Amino acid sequence: MATHYDAAIIGGGIIGLSTAYHLAKKNVKVALFESGKVGKKASQAAAGMLGAHAELEKPGVFFDFARASQSRYPTLAEEVKEISGIDMNLKTGGILKLAYSKEDIESGNQMNRLDSVVWKSKEEALAMEPSISESILGASFIEDDIQVEPTKVCKAFAKSARLLGADIYEYTPITAIDTDSAAITIKSQNETFSADQLIVASGVWSGHFFQQLGLEKKLYPVKGECLSVWNEDIALERTLYHEHCYIVPRKNGRLVIGATMKPGDWDEEPTLGGIGAVMKKAASMLPAVTRMKIDTFWAGLRPETEDSTPYIGKHPNDNRILFAAGHYRNGILLAPATGSMISDLVLGKKVNQEWEDAFAIKDKERQVI
Amino acid sequence: MATHYDAAIIGGGIIGLSTAYHLAKKNVKVALFESGKVGKKASQAAAGMLGAHAELEKPGVFFDFARASQSRYPTLAEEVKEISGIDMNLKTGGILKLAYSKEDIESGNQMNRLDSVVWKSKEEALAMEPSISESILGASFIEDDIQVEPTKVCKAFAKSARLLGADIYEYTPITAIDTDSAAITIKSQNETFSADQLIVASGVWSGHFFQQLGLEKKLYPVKGECLSVWNEDIALERTLYHEHCYIVPRKNGRLVIGATMKPGDWDEEPTLGGIGAVMKKAASMLPAVTRMKIDTFWAGLRPETEDSTPYIGKHPNDNRILFAAGHYRNGILLAPATGSMISDLVLGKKVNQEWEDAFAIKDKERQVI
Amino acid sequence: MATHYDAAIIGGGIIGLSTAYHLAKKNVKVALFESGKVGKKASQAAAGMLGAHAELEKPGVFFDFARASQSRYPTLAEEVKEISGIDMNLKTGGILKLAYSKEDIESGNQMNRLDSVVWKSKEEALAMEPSISESILGASFIEDDIQVEPTKVCKAFAKSARLLGADIYEYTPITAIDTDSAAITIKSQNETFSADQLIVASGVWSGHFFQQLGLEKKLYPVKGECLSVWNEDIALERTLYHEHCYIVPRKNGRLVIGATMKPGDWDEEPTLGGIGAVMKKAASMLPAVTRMKIDTFWAGLRPETEDSTPYIGKHPNDNRILFAAGHYRNGILLAPATGSMISDLVLGKKVNQEWEDAFAIKDKERQVI
Amino acid sequence: MATHYDAAIIGGGIIGLSTAYHLAKKNVKVALFESGKVGKKASQAAAGMLGAHAELEKPGVFFDFARASQSRYPTLAEEVKEISGIDMNLKTGGILKLAYSKEDIESGNQMNRLDSVVWKSKEEALAMEPSISESILGASFIEDDIQVEPTKVCKAFAKSARLLGADIYEYTPITAIDTDSAAITIKSQNETFSADQLIVASGVWSGHFFQQLGLEKKLYPVKGECLSVWNEDIALERTLYHEHCYIVPRKNGRLVIGATMKPGDWDEEPTLGGIGAVMKKAASMLPAVTRMKIDTFWAGLRPETEDSTPYIGKHPNDNRILFAAGHYRNGILLAPATGSMISDLVLGKKVNQEWEDAFAIKDKERQVI
Prior knowledge:
The structure is a homotetramer.
Chain A: E1 3-10, H1 14-25, E2 30-33, H2 41-45, H3 52-56, H4 61-84, E3 95-99, H5 102-112, E4 117-121, H6 122-128, E5 138-142, H7 150-163, E6 167-169, E7 174-178, E8 184-188, E9 192-200, H8 207-212, E10 220-230, E11 239-242, E12 245-249, E13 254-258, E14 262-263, H9 272-285, E15 293-304, E16 311-315, E17 318-325, H10 331-346, H11 353-359
Helix pairs in contact in A: 1-7, 1-10, 4-7, 4-10
Protein name (chains A, B, C, D): glycine oxidase
Enzyme class (chains A, B, C, D): oxidoreductase
Organism (chains A, B, C, D): Bacillus gobiensis
């Protein structure tokens, strides 16, 4: 007899784990299937900068969703630490989004008008962080854009979900899905499970399941290459950001530096060229990095959708099936709100209508947001 | 338009790579699809001991096939080195299969009667390898059981196949196979290919494809944990073997030591208990290992079938589809003969009838050999 | 002109760093010279168990000194975190000293009579830590024997000392010492320094400086081999201890396991035999470790003196020269009290007379304590 | 009683090991003392390019010595392989010294007139190595500038010396030298040895021994940062060289790339800035490296003298003491001739007078060569 679950999740990255946690908290009998180990791949590769402003820049539904997700982190961190004993290492300090040119300043103007953003002159920015490059013209300071340690977030969600009753199956790739009966049948190499509802949260590898489940939605990898260095020299409290590159200071003195954007590259290892480019960019933001010792380097594949908006919602033709994939550069940031929204949908609760529309899996093009 | 191939191989371990090489050599237009990088997983984890006698012990069809495969290595090594410049690091020296008890001696008697095996008394064995344990009663010496470096064998096959025209796609998991048309359709995440014939060679992960292709054949992982040490002290020319454990001396002074057998364990990392057990066994064969420095440790999943015999041959109901999987502990040993046999089947050539029968994928039980 | 210091320290392990910190706090102009990087070697190899009871067992001057040092840690941790921002990761929970035999129980009786120690029956011990071996007869529970992370302690001392004005010279081996003038001259490869007072704190490498400074005190290495594993399975709050072996649970789920004792071995890398022995011992205390994943392994050289008591005090014939070396298994534990005592001696303050006598560098044998 | 040797060597880098080998071959009873492990530090960091021409450029005594040393490698490699079984992995192919400007061409003119050097036009160079940068104007091709693997050379010398009777003491820093008696007394931490002759070969750390032995010769570190990548794409047979940077292709597909030159830096770890600079330089020689996967990175300290010429010869005031140090960028290249020359001096044989003069340790300035 197949073991039966209320809900089954495919994918043990940060989105799947957040979803498992949110469902288990509501006493849903949930299983999560991961082909390798949980919390690896893109989730592990992320820097953990919760850059709602830095990354998204302009107001709208997506920004609103991101801000809501970001604002859940402090409470969530306490909640899962209480359950699991694991600290997400949430670190405040904010982000300084550096401007080197008039174009940089102009492109930041819309963001700068938000209450949560303060424009700092060159002198003010250097007073805050004396080690940043003297070539800047100024910087937008976003105090709310905090950071977490993604591997800790994943561990904390996984352990909390387990302690709340979720079953997490590692090294268990799903090889077949049968939706013909009332309960969905899910097969791994050697076992068969059934579930009332199924959530696909496999990051860039979700395309395969969209296909299997009759939808022509593709996901594209955008490879990001990163490195980290040990800072024993200088004070750096805030994350530095410019044109999708960032330097994130960890509590233990490590600086996490990223990232390239290489669309269409499925290879999960960094190249000399990619790491060289990130090094150069980092030195242009924080010249002192050139004197620092290299810790390590790595890469991850961000899951990008055709219109750069994640798929969060139900299968258009089978409402037992849900998707939570395509979070691109924002998986860590969006994990709390995504997990919570999927949990509400599974339980038949009402969710924010604007969000539901914006992230819906539709047959035709969505309006880009 | 889908790119078309004469033959497509799923799986870039040593079996898939040997098959790709043998087909490319015959001018077959061949593609190999690997979900990660070629030559990893079980192929990389292997020690490379070509232990036709040590592992198989008794004569029969399987032993015959293994000996045939083993005997191809020297020529094959030269051939691919010529093409690719890569050396398989074939090392002679043979294997000493140690006997510690009367039971060990008795169980080796059948093997010892073979021309290729010579029984050595304790004194003779210690004269050959003065560092082995004084607790032995004697040893079977098998001069033909040589060794190669599996990662080099894989690299050599891969590069040679490429140079002979094969297309090798890494990071390309196959997500769907359609056998309804004359040409088989093979889909990856983002591309579609077609092929006249399809070979499944995905090791323990082949079960999934058997299932998809309508066959109820399962593959089981048997996890093996290994470690290596640096030998700067003692002379050791021959591989030592006892009860599925071995110490393989590499040319560069590294000793490769393995392996546990943990059936049903899909986890690809070694545990403290497994590595501890291998260390203990190694010390009982070669006491000097306790003084050596540890290099590293790892694990691999050997693909085991229900009757411990690999599947090499055609789909019983669709002769465009072939399988080469389930080589258990003997993937490196059997790669040459397997690649050659599959190549012959693809080209419609006659193959050894006994082998074809022994390794056939049948609906009912095969006679265990 | 040689740069002049009030006090110069040779050696950047935990003892030298604690001394630098305590001196800098008192506004002494201090330099520390380290031939490599600070906080490495034996200091980095230590598990950080502050086992005043577990290691010392019987009351006396040494135990008294150890308890005094241990009790400084909580305040010290806050103090240096305030200055440096670095957390020593002090973790409470205490130590369970396991007893497997009547001999174990008897040898613990003297310790068990202390107020700080509570004897727990087998049932009580298993109720506290359900995963420990069922073979125990009981355990001594020492709540005060807490732990820190040695690398963090070293980093925190080093950064705090620097911020308080100390100069820390890494990669600066001292090649000559000249005590003929009023100020002591200290030469590195390419620079010359002078100092009013000199402190030798080079661990097992201090023997060389004793010799150079006219004293026939030798230091012996006692090599300790360790490993760590990842615990994702079981709850373990307390450090487990038996016959100089221990399992220390870190906050992040890592268990640090040690250690062998190999006197006279100067080699700083672990051997297969040493790691195998530690694994076996760990499994006898906590059977679940056999299922855990190995993180890494390493070794360190503990600095042992002829009478197993550290040298902390002045040169018998030259009171400008001080020694703080030979802390054997207890460097982390004794660092606060040692640094403080040396600081007092440098400043001409009165120190505890019993301690001064016990750790004095005398020509004749000291009374073993 | 102190163990007595005919000759004692301090330093187990490539120079000390070559000297030990050459002395042991002549039946001299020799000991080598190394503070850590043999064959590490600068010897391990080297790429192994035997660039007599590429590095030295102009004829003269030094060039002559370098060419003599280089020409010994093929015979030496066979000789030590015969003894030790270890292959130095000598690889032919030669060096292409790239010219990007008229200045490059002019500065190479003197070298190009040598019989061993052939000027290649841009077209000819690209025909030889199609992957090199199209920005070159041409290249000097030096067929004799071969390569070896430095770690293998060290292992081969060490094992051969041992097998010929040398005693090699690792983890044995020398803490005192006494030259007052007829036999020189050498002390380590815990043992005393005596020797008729003493050879100092401690690389950049030799300055200390010069000082102790009454000579005011200093050695300066010139830090070099390197990295290696895996080449699976392109053919590259020859070492590429430009302005002290190089790309050395190993037999196994690894490209070794170096190196920065940072005078006065004693820190043995690479920085982000250093590795970034080497990456950039590599891409300017071989654009395809940007697509390659990084293997690892490291640094070493080259031992530089005041006049950039090594010290090879006797102490001016005590002919029982010899030095072989300060080989800067050329330690691997010069090891055979240096070991042989020191061996001859120890045995009282005549050596090439020009070389003896050029490398002599004199009180006054040597004529720069």
